[in-house]
Fold:
Amino acid sequence: METALVPYEDAVKRYDPVIGIEVHVELSTKSKMFCGAENTAGGEPNTHVTEVCLGLPGTLPVLNRTALEYAIRLGLALNCTIAPSCRFARKNYFYPDIPKNYQTSQSDEPIASDGYVDVILDDGETFRVPIERAHMEEDAGKNTHIGGDDGRIHGALYSLVDYNRAGVPLVEIVTRPIEGAGDRAPEVARKYVETLRDIARAIDVSEARMERGQVRADVNLSLRPTPESPLGTRTETKNVNSFRAIESAVRYEVSRHAAVLDSGQPVFQETRHFHEEDGSTSPGRAKSDADDYRYFPEPDLVPVAPDPAWVEEIRAGLPEMPAQRRARLHKAWGYTDAEMRDVVNAGALDLIDATTASGVTAAAARKWWMGELSRIAKQGDVALDQLNVTPQQIGELQGLIDAGTINDKIGRQVLDGVLAGEGDPVAVVDKRGLKVVSDDGALLEAVTAALAAEPDVVDKVKAGNMGPVGAIIGAVMKATKGQADAKRVRELILEQING
Amino acid sequence: MVVSNTRFTAAELATQLKIGTVSAVEAVQCHLDRIDDVDGDLHAFLHVSAEEALATAREVDKDRAAGVDLPPLAGVPIAVKDLICTKGIPTTAASRILEGWIPPYDASIVRNIKAARMPILGKTNLDEFAMGSSTEHSAFGDTHNPWDLDRIPGGSGGGSAVAVASYEAPLAIGTDTGGSIRGPAAFTGTVGVKPTYGSVSRYGCIAMASSLDQAGPVARNVLDTALLHEVLAGYDPRDSTSINEPVPAYADAAVHGATQDLKGVKVGVVLEMVGNGFQPGVLARFYESLTKLQNMGAEVVNLSCPSFPFAFDAYYLIMPAEVSSNLARYDGMRYGLRVEPTDGRPVTAESVTMATRGQGFGEEVKRRIILGTYALSAGYYDAFYGSAQQVRTLIQRDFAAAFDQVDVLVSPTTPTTAFKLGEKLDDVLAMYLGDVATIPANLAGVPALSMPNGIDAGLPTGFQIIAPAKEDARLYRVGAALEAALEHQWGGPLLDQAPELTVAE
Structure:
C-alpha cells in the first residue's frame, strides 16, 4: 500500500533531494563490441548475429577498437581520467536475453573515471554534475512477452528473444551523488541527460536518440532533512526513457519519499518502474547489497592499455563541447538570454549556425528558423531539422532578398517552392517567375494607371498628406501580383506627383 | 602378415603419401577399419565422421595426382577431441546438455587442420566438459585403456590418447586445463603436449577454464606431436589471448634432438614434484630417465619451487570459478538439451533453466559449478578467488626463478600408472590429486610435454618436461633426445609392448 504523496513544493521545503543518474549510451560503431555482427537497430529478429554474440559454445570475444576509441572519446569529453590499463569483468546472472548468462562489462576498473559535466539550466545558470565513472559493456538482447497484458512478462504465454541488440557496445556513465540541486533536482536531472545526449552527438560516438533507446537512464533519488545530513536511503527508477519522464520521475519520487519519511517509515531500497501515462513509479524488485553478480576479471580478454599517445591524439581531435559552443555562439549572435534559450530548446542551434555560415546575419537566420520554419514544422509535427530545407538554402533565400531580387513576401513563396522540392531558391524564382519587377518602364505604367484611378490622391500628397501613398503602392503591388519592388514604387509615385 | 598402414607414425605416413605408396583414401580407410575392429572395446570415439574423412582424402589424392603442392601432413588422418567445434559434425563435450548439437562453425584449429588437408576421422571421448582425470565422467560411457581394458585411460582426453595408442588414428587433438593431454598420454604410453598458453587458438574449443585451457597435439612419438603442433599453432585474431608471433620450428627441434647430444642443457628436478604419494615404480622410471639425460650430456640439478604445494588448491578455486561462469550459457534457451519441468511448476525461463541443467549436467560438472559459484560469491571472493590468483602469481615467480637456473624442468607426469575403472570415482580428492604434477604448468601458462619412459607392472609411466613460455621447442629437443635413448634401450617404441587388442568380428 503506497502512502499518499506530499506536494512537491512542500516536500523540497522540508527535505534536500540528492540524485544519482546512470546513463547507458549505445555507441554507433559499424560492428558490435566483441564480434563482426552489424551494429544496426531493428531488422528481422536474430539476423544481426554471429556465433560470438549468440554465445555459442567455444566462442570468444575480441574487443572492437572503434568501440574503445569511442569510449575514450566520451570519457575525455566528460573530463574524466582515462585508465592507463583496465580490465573487463564478467557480471554473472541468468536471464535469457544475455546469451552467455553473463554480461561482459567492467567492474572496479572502468576505462574512464573522475570527471564532470557542466549543465546549463533553463535560466542559463551552470550546474556542475560530478562523474564517478564511465565504463564499457555489451548490451543485452530484447525479450518480447506474448500473451500477457501490455507485453508484460506477468501472465505471458511465452517469450521471444531477439539477439540483434546483444553485444552492441555501450558506455555506462555513472554520476556521483548530485548534491546541491535543491528544488531544481528534477530539472538538473533532465538537463544532465540532455547534455550527455548533446555531447555524445557532438563527438560523434552515438546518434543518442532517447526514443530509440540509444540513451537510457536510471534515476536514483534519496531525501535527507538538510544538506548537512547523511545521505538517505535511495530508490532507483529504471529505464526512464524520455527527458520529460526523467523530470517526472524525480518529482514523483521526491513526493513519495517525503510522504514515507513524514509517516516515520524508512524508505525501502528497491528498483522502481516508471509509468509514462501518469508520471508515477511503482515498486520493482527489492535491491540490496545482497545482489551478487560474482564479478571476476574476464579471462577471455586481455587488459585494455590504450597507448597514452593515442589517448592524447583522441583528446586533440575532440570538437568544441556543446556548452562551450553555446556560450560562444550566444555571444557572437548577440541574442538575448531568452532568445538563445528558445533557439536551443527548438533544436535550431545547429541550423542557425549553418545558416549564418552561408553569410546571413544571425538576426535574419533566427527570424527564418524561429518564425516561418518553426510554424511550418509545428504544423507538420516534425522536428526543424526534418524539414525539407537546408540552412544553405535559407542562406541563398535571404541573399536574394538582401539583393532586392525578391522581397519578403515573395520570399515566403520561394520557401514554399523549396519545401515542395522544386529546387534551390534561385531555381524556384526562375521556375515560378517570381522576380521582383524593378524595371521602371513596367512599374511606371502601373503607377500612372493607379494615380489616374485616384486623382484626388495627387492633391492630398501635394498638400503634404502622405497617407494615401500607401494605398497607391498597394494598388501597384496588386497590379504587379506582388512582384514589384515596393521601395522603387514609392519613389516613382512621389516623382510622378512632385514632377 | 602385412604390417597395417595404421602402424606408421604420422611422419612416416606423410612420406608414404608423398611418394605414393599409400593413398589418402587408403590411409583413412585403414584407420576407419581399425576403429571398426577395436573401438567397440575401447570406446575412444563418440562419433566417426567416415564420409567427411573419405571426402577430404579423395580431394587430397586428386590434387596430388594433379601435381598440386600439398601441405606436409596432407592426407594424414586425425581424431579430434569432442570438446572442439567442428562445423556440421556433432560436438557434445561428452555432455547430455549438448547432445545432438551441430556447430555452425569450425574452431580455428579445425580450420587449421582443414587447411593442412588432414581428414577428420571423428570426435573422441572425454570427461564431460573436460572435467575429470579418467574419462569416466563422460555422459556417453567410459573409454578403456588399451594396455588393460579394466583400467582408465586418464582424462579428460582419454579418447584422443586411446585412439592414438591403439592405432585408430596417427594423430589426435587434445585440450589441457590441468593435465588433460598429459595425464592420458602418461597412462597410455603416448606423447602429449600442452603448448604455451596462447600458442594455439582457443576459438571454438568449448571453454572449461578460460585462463588455463590450451589445445595441443597427441601422437605416438615426439616428432609427430611437433609436426601437429606446427599445424595447430599460430596467431588467431579471433582469440584475444593468442600470441602474435611466428610459429617456431618445432619439428626441426625434434629432429635435431633425436640426433644430437644434450651437452650444455641444464635440467631441473623440482623437489616438490617428486614427493610423497608417488608410486615407487613411477619414481624408479623417472630416475632412470634422468640418468639417460645425464648420459647424453645434460646437467641435472635439484631445485625447489616452494609455492608448488599450493598450486593444487589454487587450481581448484580458479578452475571451478571460471567453469561456473563458462557453463552458465547452457540453459536450454538456444541450443542443446531443453527440459521442461515435470513436477507441476509452470514453464518459465527459470524453471526450464533449472530442469535443463539439473538433467543435462553430470555430477562432476555440478560439483565444480557449485564450488566455483561459491568461490566467486560476495564475501568469499577475496579469500578464495583473490588468494588463488595470488598463489598463481607466486607459482609464476617460482617458474621464473627456476628457469633462471635451468633450461627445462622435469617430473613424473602422474604419481601413479593407470588405475582401475571405478577405483577413484568415490574418492574425489584422490582423483584430483592425480593432476598434482601437471597443474603448475597450466597456472603459469608454460608449455609441458608428457612422453612414455617405461613400464611399471605392465602399465606405462609418463615423463614430464616443462619449458619456459614460448620455448616449446625445448620440449621437443629434450623429449626427442630422451625418446631416442629409450627406444634404443627398448628396441622400438614402448607401444610395441602393449598387448594386441582383440579384433571384433
